[in-house]
């Protein structure tokens, strides 16, 4: 694979599909900024103090127009940024071109092969001899995974002289990762160890990435502090509940041109993603049925007016099926019993939250909520880098920062907060300025 890093006239590295699309990307970034008030408020509040001065940040997250606004918020606060996508199909090439030309190193294009994908991930982590990055913005957890696998291989190499063996696994992606690490060991046997020693922490915003973190914490292999943003309210609610419903309807209309009103739709799973999809289908005029294994979720669905049945009860009657819950839900035997021209959809982290080769992403306002959390999490890790406040564990975003992220979006919606008096705050046992929710609160 003969991929070569390119450089802008200012010397910034990049690899994108078509730099001629940069002007179009810049136009769309400016439009998205209007709908991303949380990020723009972060720039207004923190920009003058440049809190990220000296910070090298690597991002592994869908390289879209909305992500471009996140990247340029990080650079506006003083960070130096290198970025790759966390998905081979989700990159918007005009967004990648604009960022590569104007503000940060980008290694991403739509339709990467798996080998190209991992090459891009390696480039985003490669800060040269200094051993950066200091911080990682991760989504699926692949950048974090590559460092952990690299450190493990380097430790084994020091102990026994043994190189990673790609043929030791049948997993194609792991074969690629082990090949990258093996070849890197021959050049710099401490490459990933130096990264580990420099890293302040990582913030992760997807179910898959967070599951990996908790697994590493459980087995004692987590190498640096991590903030779990997947379980923040403004992620689990705003992105899953509101964003996924929007995305489902947009994809249904784009891909099938189907009239949703009057159809019978089955939503498998009534977690946040399922709630969003069920509500969106109901608003569009469908008769919605929910399937569930969790009695609490089933009760919620029933109390909100949805029938709760099994897939077998309704498989021959429904027009639209939406899996939001798990694998092995809609099987071949179900499909054989479906109506002619029934539509089967898959959404949730099992399908990278609905990103498709040509389909729409989530609304800018929804993404602003999650990405504002990313900025605040990165600021928190960087601010506390010398205090030992964060150990090599997984943390949730402190509630006062979640509430700040929410508050930064209220003005755009025309909402005004009521202020508590000191007497009222004391009566309910909260500070006047918050946080108003306990650390464990999610709903």
Automatic annotation (TrEMBL):
Under catalytic activity, the entry for this protein gives: S-adenosyl-L-homocysteine + H2O = L-homocysteine + adenosine
Q: According to its UniProt record, in which pathway does this protein act?
A: Amino-acid biosynthesis; L-homocysteine biosynthesis; L-homocysteine from S-adenosyl-L-homocysteine: step 1/1
Under the heading Gene3D superfamilies, the entry gives: Adenosylhomocysteinase-like
GO CC annotation terms, alphabetical:
cytosol
What SMART domains does UniProt report for this protein, alphabetically?
AdoHcyase, AdoHcyase_NAD
- What EC number(s) does the entry state? 3.13.2.1
Functionally, this protein is described as follows: Adenosylhomocysteine is a competitive inhibitor of S-adenosyl-L-methionine-dependent methyl transferase reactions; therefore adenosylhomocysteinase may play a key role in the control of methylations via regulation of the intracellular concentration of adenosylhomocysteine.
What is the protein's name according to its record? Adenosylhomocysteinase
Its source organism is Handroanthus impetiginosus
Read off the lineage from the record: Eukaryota, Viridiplantae, Streptophyta, Embryophyta, Tracheophyta
């Amino acid at each position: 694979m003969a991929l070569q890093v390119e450089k802008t006239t200012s010397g910034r590295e990049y690899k994108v599909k078509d730099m001629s699309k940069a002007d179009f990307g810049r136009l769309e970034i400016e439009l998205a900024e209007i709908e991303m008030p949380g990020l723009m408020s972060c720039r207004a509040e923190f920009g003058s103090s440049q809190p990220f001065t000296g910070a090298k940040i690597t991002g592994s997250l869908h390289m879209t127009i909305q992500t471009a606004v996140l990247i340029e918020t990080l650079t506006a606060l003083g960070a130096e940024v290198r970025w790759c996508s966390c998905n081979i199909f989700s990159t918007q090439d005009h967004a990648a071109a604009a960022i590569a030309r104007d503000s940060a190193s980008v290694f991403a294009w739509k339709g990467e092969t798996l080998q190209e994908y991992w090459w891009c991930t390696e480039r985003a982590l490669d800060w040269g001899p200094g051993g950066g990055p200091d911080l990682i913005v991760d989504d699926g957890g692949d950048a974090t995974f590559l460092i952990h696998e690299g450190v493990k291989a380097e430790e084994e190499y020091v102990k026994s002289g043994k190189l990673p063996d790609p043929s030791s696994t049948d997993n194609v992606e792991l074969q690629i990762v082990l090949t990258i690490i093996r070849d890197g060991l021959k050049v710099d046997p401490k490459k990933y160890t130096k990264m580990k020693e420099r890293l302040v922490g990582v913030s992760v915003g997807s179910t898959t990435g967070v599951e990996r973190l908790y697994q590493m914490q459980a087995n004692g292999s987590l190498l640096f502090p991590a903030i779990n943003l997947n379980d923040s309210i403004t992620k689990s609610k705003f992105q899953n509940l509101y964003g996924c419903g929007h995305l489902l309807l947009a994809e249904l209309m784009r891909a099938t041109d189907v009239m949703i009103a009057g159809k019978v739709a089955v939503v498998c799973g009534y977690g946040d993603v399922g709630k969003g999809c069920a509500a969106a289908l109901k608003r569009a005029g469908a008769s919605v049925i929910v399937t569930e294994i969790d009695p609490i979720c089933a009760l919620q669905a029933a109390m909100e007016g949805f029938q709760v049945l099994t897939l077998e009860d309704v498989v021959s009657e429904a027009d639209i099926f939406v899996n939001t819950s798990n694998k092995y839900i809609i099987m071949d035997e179900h499909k054989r019993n479906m109506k002619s021209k029934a539509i089967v959809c898959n959404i949730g982290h099992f399908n990278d939250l609905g990103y498709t080769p040509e389909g729409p992403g989530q609304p800018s306002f929804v993404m602003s909520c999650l990405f504002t959390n990313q900025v605040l999490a990165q600021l928190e890790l960087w601010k506390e880098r010398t205090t030992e406040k964060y150990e090599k564990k997984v943390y949730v975003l402190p509630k006062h920062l979640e509430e700040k992220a929410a508050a930064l979006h209220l003005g755009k919606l025309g909402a005004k907060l009521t202020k508590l008096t000191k007497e009222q705050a004391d009566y309910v046992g909260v500070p006047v300025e918050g946080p108003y929710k306990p650390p464990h609160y999610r709903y």
